[in-house]
């Protein structure tokens, strides 16, 4: 399961509305792809539907879908939102990551 912090929830709901999605039915699609300075990088986008092969769940009022391959890398991850001096954006706190890059956008196991 992927957890969603309160700060991430607020930003997700705001962005869904701004992008023209219905926050009650839309999904946050989270995934992992090859690339980045540590080997794997995170993906996050909005989607109106989930696929039959997706893992689908809800946390803190946010619907999340993850493809099965990415789910193996993301189990236990918390999606947070940081608005600090180092920039604003979503942050993946992944307990499975053995190494992350300085920007926090890629990781390795």
Based on secondary structure, the structural category is alpha+beta
What is the CATH superfamily classification?
HesB-like domain
Q: What's the rounded overall pLDDT mean? A: 85
Put simply, the count of helices is: 2
**Biggest β-sheet: strands ordered side by side in the sheet:** 4-5-2-3-9-8
In the CATH classification, which architecture applies? Sandwich
One letter per element, helices H and strands E, the order comes to: EHEEEEHEEEE
Which word captures the global form?
Answer: globular
Q: How many structural domains in the coordinates?
A: 1
Q: Low-confidence parts, pLDDT < 50 over ≥5 residues?
A: none
Write the layout of secondary structure elements.
Layout (H helix, E strand, L loop, with lengths): L2 E2 L1 H13 L8 E8 L5 E8 L6 E6 L2 E6 H7 L3 E5 L6 E5 L5 E2 L5 E3 L1
Parallel strand pairs: 1-6, 2-5
Antiparallel strand pairs: 2-3, 3-9, 4-5, 6-7, 8-9
